[in-house]
Design goal:
This protein has an eight-stranded mixed beta sheet, sandwiched between helices. By secondary structure, the protein is of the alpha/beta class. Strand 3 and strand 4 form a beta hairpin. The protein has nine helices and 14 strands. Bound molecules: adenosine-5'-diphosphate and N-acetyl-L-glutamyl 5-phosphate. Residues 32-34, 64-66, 69, 86-87, 97, 146, 171, 182, 184-185 line the site of N-acetyl-L-glutamyl 5-phosphate. This is Acetylglutamate kinase.
Length: 286
């Protein structure tokens, strides 16, 4: 890309109000498995998060890894299926989920941020008892070891923030008897954003945002519109937990929740440092 010093200076000045507004604020970013499939996007994500930390924000990364779990289950010959956007998780599947999310995916993100000059620390919900979980009930199916967040103990995140580290959280929860739960990463991000009283919750996925039945991007959605869109079948599958956690987060006091397209280069910087925004803003009832 051609370097234009005047343009570079202009971009920095334009970013100044955003740096001031978000200084010292927590921004929870859910990095979806579908948004991390290309190396150049992974690298850009790592730089974006590192830059946020460098200018004084507290980014907290929660990652998914659905496609990566799926690929490993396939290699191992374990069949898998989803109900309402949740992977039905038996004991064998849980073992693979924990290995893939807590192992390879988590460490790749940590390593990427460290390579970009940040200081990332990888955790699962077991570390520091961060995520207490209980079984997630579904009206039509037994989801096995799928969990929902029962309680968040944010102490370890606060320590990391204060130490200038960037927490990178894999969505594994711990039950009352120490058993592991597979929690949808969107739900973990929403619960963390609510507990940490985050300024923003940003969910990065592989669609432009929430689309209506004509396939048009909804740049803003009111809480009151969502129930009708679900009833009409306009919002389904993997978008259901995203919408739910955005609604829960704004109801709990998070200022703004965004569903953005992780395939757009530097989508995070565009969302945070420009007025343009990329994707759907979920607004609360207030
Ligand atoms: N109204 C909608 N707008 C956009 N995507 C939707 C909508 N309803 C359902 N979806 C589905 O939700 C998917 C995103 O969820 P998911 O695949 O779980 O993403 P991620 O892996 O990033 O968490 C989209 O690819 C699309 O198939
Ligand atoms: C219960 C449940 O479905 N858990 C998810 C956890 C990973 C995740 O949420 O990954 P994405 O964000 O990439 O979809 C799963 O097993 O795929």
């Amino acid at each position: 890309m051609d370097k234009n010093p005047q343009l570079q200076a202009h971009v920095l000045v334009e970013a100044l109000p955003y740096m001031q507004r978000f200084h010292g604020r927590t921004i929870v970013i859910k990095y979806g498995g579908n948004a991390m499939t290309e190396a150049h996007l992974q690298e850009q994500f790592a730089y974006d998060v590192t830059l946020m930390k460098q200018v004084g924000m507290n980014p907290v990364v929660v990652h998914g890894g659905g496609p990566q779990i799926g690929a490993m289950l396939e290699r191992l010959g374990v069949e898998t299926r989803f109900v309402d956007g949740m992977r039905v998780t038996d004991a064998a599947t849980m073992e693979v989920v924990e290995m893939v999310l807590g192992g390879r995916v988590n460490k790749e993100i940590v390593q990427g941020i460290n390579r970009a000059g940040g200081r990332a620390v990888g955790l699962t919900g077991k570390d520091g008892a961060l995520l207490r979980a209980r079984p997630l009930r579904n009206a039509v199916a037994d989801l096995g070891m799928v969990g929902e967040v029962a309680a968040v103990n944010p102490e370890v995140i606060r320590w990391l923030d204060q130490g200038d580290f960037i927490p990178v959280v894999a969505p594994i929860g711990v039950g009352a008897r120490g058993e592991s739960y597979n929690i949808n990463a969107d739900l973990v991000a929403g619960a963390l954003a609510a507990t940490l009283k985050a300024e923003k919750l940003i969910l990065m996925t592989n669609v432009a945002g929430v689309l209506d039945k004509e396939g048009t991007l909804r740049t803003r959605l009111e809480a009151s519109e969502v129930a009708q869109m679900i009833a009409d079948g306009q919002i389904y599958g993997g978008m259901l937990p995203k919408i739910q956690c955005c609604l829960d987060a704004v109801a709990a006091g998070v200022q703004a929740a965004h569903i953005i397209d992780g395939r757009v280069p530097h989508a995070l910087l565009l969302e945070i440092f420009t007025d343009a925004g990329v994707g759907t803003l979920i607004a609360g009832c207030r």
